[in-house]
Amino acid sequence: MGWLGLDDTDTVDEGCTTFSLHALIEALPNDVKVGTLRLVRLWPYAQQRTRGNAAVAVELSPSNEAEFLLFLDRYWREHLQPLKGNISPVEDGNRAQSATDPGMVWFSNRTKNSTFYFDAVRNHISLGAIPEATKSWGGMGRIGATAAVLWPQDKMTWEAVCWRKKERWSTSERSVCDEALAKADHLPGTFLTRDPRTERSLISPRGTCPVLFGVRSRTKDTAKEAARLLTSAEATEPSIAWRVFCTNQATDDHLDHALHAKVQSIEVLSRGTTVIQTNAGKWLAFAESGDVKHLAQSLCPGDEIEGMGLNPEQGVLHLERLRLHTPAPTKERPMCIACNRRMKSMGKGQGVRCPTCKNRQNEAWIEGKTRMSSPWTQPPMDARRHLAKPLDWNKEPNKSRNG
Ligand SMILES: [Zn+2]
After folding, report:
1. Could you tell me the distance, in angstroms and rounded to a whole number, from the CA of residue 369 to the centre of ligand 1?
2. CATH topology (fold) of 2-150
3. Span from the CA of 341 to the centroid of ligand 1 (angstroms)
4. 361 CA from centroid of ligand 1 (Å)
5. Ligand 1 centroid – CA 365 distance (Å)
6. What does CATH list as the number for 259-329+370-384?
7. Which residue, 261, 400, 386, is CA-closest to 322?
8. How does residue 402 score in pLDDT terms, banded at 50, 70 and 90?
9. What is the pLDDT of residues 343-380, one digit of tens each?
10. Structure-model confidence comparison of residues 1 and 117, the more confident one
11. 330: CA distance to ligand 1 center in Å?
12. How far, in Å, is the centroid of ligand 1 from the Cα of 334?
């Protein structure tokens, strides 16, 4: 038994990595047993970022490994290597993707080394850092392919990915039955199926690619059940196939422990993006980050905060979680007892005076209204990373439950 990893095979014309894996599995010689499939999300800022930055892997048991490797050689040359150099057009205003540089790796024994996986999910990785595979093919894609194989799979969720008919790949429109979607959304364990506020579907990608939908669940069985519901509905367009992947989505694997800092200043930029200057560097709450941004904007100098996120550049934290740990004590000018007006400073160290009756007092400050610490905040579900775990899962009695 070994693991095959695959990455960076996506272009708009040629498909996406999950479909490349499906096609490869369909072409396998009969003696090769197929085990678990994996869809592994990686460092979202990678320079050679593929769509959604996902790599895939599959557990395979060939009865004759030498013959199986010859099959892989041939399959690589005929189907995967030719994808090299393809460039996807700019999608929905996102930045242009770099040229495809597919990679494939075969590990006949998966080492228990998870360090590489965590590096690949939290940092930029160079080709030189990859642990050696039994055999590997191609270029940059080997990074993600290897990370997908070395994922320890301690925490996991599931996603049933369904691919549409080839003649539909060039359109960005997709038909998935609304009623079936509502039913799938109500199955115990499915998540990020519909936006609860708008009931908008969250399971279909927006661009032109082979994926009709990907329905996420905390259990494998429910992922299958949801896929059956959706594909069998009359109002859902015909599809080629669907398969269930074990994934690191919603595991928080990309986040290290929480950082603690003291607020120095707050600056609100265009569209509400908020920069928190702290004694531990610059923390950014983006315009789309909802509660995180609102909390950031309410902070005061001296507040002690905690945050989690990724560091795409040195000293800058892109916030995915934020909480107010200890609010700074606030102070304000006292009120004039006679006039109930706020008193004003007469200059440094000279006390305060009522602007109406000119009453004076030496005590220049009193304690202001008490602010409360806040629980953790997180961006709304449609602005979250695939890797982000919903906060309310942490409130459940058994935290380690992952399906
Ligand atoms: Zn007064």
Report:
1. 22
2. Alpha-Beta Plaits (3.30.70)
3. 6
4. 11
5. 16
6. 2.40.50.1010
7. 261
8. very low
9. 999 988 889 999 999 999 998 899 888 889 999 999 99
10. 117
11. 23
12. 11
- Tokens 């579907």 label which residue? 201
Q: How far is the CA of 354 from the centre of ligand 1 (A)?
A: 5
- The per-residue pLDDT for 48 is 54
**78 C-alpha vs ligand 1 centroid, how far in Å?**
89
Give 270's pLDDT tier (boundaries 50, 70, 90): confident
**293 C-alpha vs ligand 1 centroid, how far in Å?**
40
pLDDT score recorded for residue 394: 81
CA-based diameter of the chain, in Å? 98
CATH number, span 157-247: 3.90.600
Residues lining ligand 1 (ion), CB within 5 A? 336, 338-339, 354, 356-357, 359
**CA 370 to ligand 1 centroid distance, Å:** 25
pLDDT, tens digit, for every residue of 198-225? 889 999 988 888 999 999 999 999 999 9
Q: Which amino acid is at 229?
A: L
Dist. CA 110–CA 8, nearest whole Å: 21
Tell me the mean pLDDT in the region 91-104: 66
For position 44, what pLDDT does the model report?
77
Q: For the chain, what are the domain ranges?
A: 2-150, 157-247, 259-329+370-384
Task: Report how far ligand 1's centroid is from the alpha carbon of 344 (Å).
Answer: 11
Residue 13 has pLDDT above 50, yes or no: no
For the stretch 329-336, contacts whose Cβ atoms lie closer than 8 Å and that sit 24 or more positions apart, written own/partner, are 329/302, 329/367, 329/368, 330/300, 330/367, 330/368, 330/369, 330/371, 331/365, 331/366, 331/367, 331/368, 332/365, 332/366, 332/368, 333/364, 333/365, 333/366, 334/361, 334/363, 334/364, 334/365, 334/366
* Cα separations in angstroms, 184 against 174, 221, 230, 340, 383: 17, 12, 7, 60, 21
Ligand 1 centre to CA of 342 (Å) is: 9
AA letter at 159: E
